[in-house]
Q: What sequence folds into this?
C-alpha cells in the first residue's frame, strides 16, 4: 500500500499492508488517536486503496483514484461532520445502502468520522450491520475517545491506534508541506507541535493567504513584471498550494466586489480587507468578474490534472494582459 503523505506510525502501516497483501482486509477498521493526529488522512488513503483499480494501491492515477481524490467517488461514503452527531436514522439509511452492490467497482467504503458522536441508539443499530457486513462493504470508523463507543462495537473491529510523530518525522512533514520555512522556524514548530500535524493546515492556510495577497497587490500595481515575479513563486510548488492560493485570491477579489457594491456586512475575510480595498480601487466590477472567471477555469484545470507550470503560465499571460489594459485606462 502507498502511504504517501502519511508519516510515522510504522506499526499501523505494516498491519494495513500485510492485511491487504493477504487479501484479508478487515471489514471494520477502528482508527483511534488524539485530535489532529491524522485519522482522516489515513482513512482517506485506506478508502482509496480499497477502491483503486491500479497495481500499487492507491495508484493515484486510475479513474477510481481520481474520483476519490476529488471527493466524487460514489462508493466512498462519509458520515459525521466535525460537530455533528450521527443519528439513528442515518445509520438505518446506511444499513440499507450497505447491502446494495457498489456503483463503480468491487467494493464500497463507509468512513464514519467522530464515531463517539453516535448516539447509543445509533451505535446499537450500527452493531447489526457490523456483525454481518456484505463481502463488498467496508467500514472505517474514526474515534478519539474510545470510552464513548460500545464495547460490542469495539470488539467487532480491527483496531489501529495512531501515535504522535517523532521529531524526525515531524521535521520531514514540515519540510514537505512548508518548504520555504527557515530552519529556526521549523525547529520551533517541531517543538510546539507535540507530534500532531493538524496545526500545519493552519500554517499552510496562512501561507496561501500571504502568497495570494502578494499576487493581489502585484495585480493592483498593474506592473507586469511584479505579476510575473509573484506568480513565479508558485511554479516550484505543488498542486494543493496552487489550489489553496487560487481560493484565497478568489476570496480577496470577491470581497473587492462586495466593497464596490457597498454590502460590507457580507465580507468573507476581514483580515484581507485592506487588500480587497486596493483591488476595488484598481479594477472595475467587470474586470474583477473576468479575473474570477479566469481563476475558476484555472482551478478546474488543476482538478483535471493539467500541469501546474502550464496552468500558471497561461494564467500569468492573461492576468498581465488585463493589468496592462487597466493601467492604460487608469
Ligand atoms: Zn488507483
A:
Amino acid at each position: 500500500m502507498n502511504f504517501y503523505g502519511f508519516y510515522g506510525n510504522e506499526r499501523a502501516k505494516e498491519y494495513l499492508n500485510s492485511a491487504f497483501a493477504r487479501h484479508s482486509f478487515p471489514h471494520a477498521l477502528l482508527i483511534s488517536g488524539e485530535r489532529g493526529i491524522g485519522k482522516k488522512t489515513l482513512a482517506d488513503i485506506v478508502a482509496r486503496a480499497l477502491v483503486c483499480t491500479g497495481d500499487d494501491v492507491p495508484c493515484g492515477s486510475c479513474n477510481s483514484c481520481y474520483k476519490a481524490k476529488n471527493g466524487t467517488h460514489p462508493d466512498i461514503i462519509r458520515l459525521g461532520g466535525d460537530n455533528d452527531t450521527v443519528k439513528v436514522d442515518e445509520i438505518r439509511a446506511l444499513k440499507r445502502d450497505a447491502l446494495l452492490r457498489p456503483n463503480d467497482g468491487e467494493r464500497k467504503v463507509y468512513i464514519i468520522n467522530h464515531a463517539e458522536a453516535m448516539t447509543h441508539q445509533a451505535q446499537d443499530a450500527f452493531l447489526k450491520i457490523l456483525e454481518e457486513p456484505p463481502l463488498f462493504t467496508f467500514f472505517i470508523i474514526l474515534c478519539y475517545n474510545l470510552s464513548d463507543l460500545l464495547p460490542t462495537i469495539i470488539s467487532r473491529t480491527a483496531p489501529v491506534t495512531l501515535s504522535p510523530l517523532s521529531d524526525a518525522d515531524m521535521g520531514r512533514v514540515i519540510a514537505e508541506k512548508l518548504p520555504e520555512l527557515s530552519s529556526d522556524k521549523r525547529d520551533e514548530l517541531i517543538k510546539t507541535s507535540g507530534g500532531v500535524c493538524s496545526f500545519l493546515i493552519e500554517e499552510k492556510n496562512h501561507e496561501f493567504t500571504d502568497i495570494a495577497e502578494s499576487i493581489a497587490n502585484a495585480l493592483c500595481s498593474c506592473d507586469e513584471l511584479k505579476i510575473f515575479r509573484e506568480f513565479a513563486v508558485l511554479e516550484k510548488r505543488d498542486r494543493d498550494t496552487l489550489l489553496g492560493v487560487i481560493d484565497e485570491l478568489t476570496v480577496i477579489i470577491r470581497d473587492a466586489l462586495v466593497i464596490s457594491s457597498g454590502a460590507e456586512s457580507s465580507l468573507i475575510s476581514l483580515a484581507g480587507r485592506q487588500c480587497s480595498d486596493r483591488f476595488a480601487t484598481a479594477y472595475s466590477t467587470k474586470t474583477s468578474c473576468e479575473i474570477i472567471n479566469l481563476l475558476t477555469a484555472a482551478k478546474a484545470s488543476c482538478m483535471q490534472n493539467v500541469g501546474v507550470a502550464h496552468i500558471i503560465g497561461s494564467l500569468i499571460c492573461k492576468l498581465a494582459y488585463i493589468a496592462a489594459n487597466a493601467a492604460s485606462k487608469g
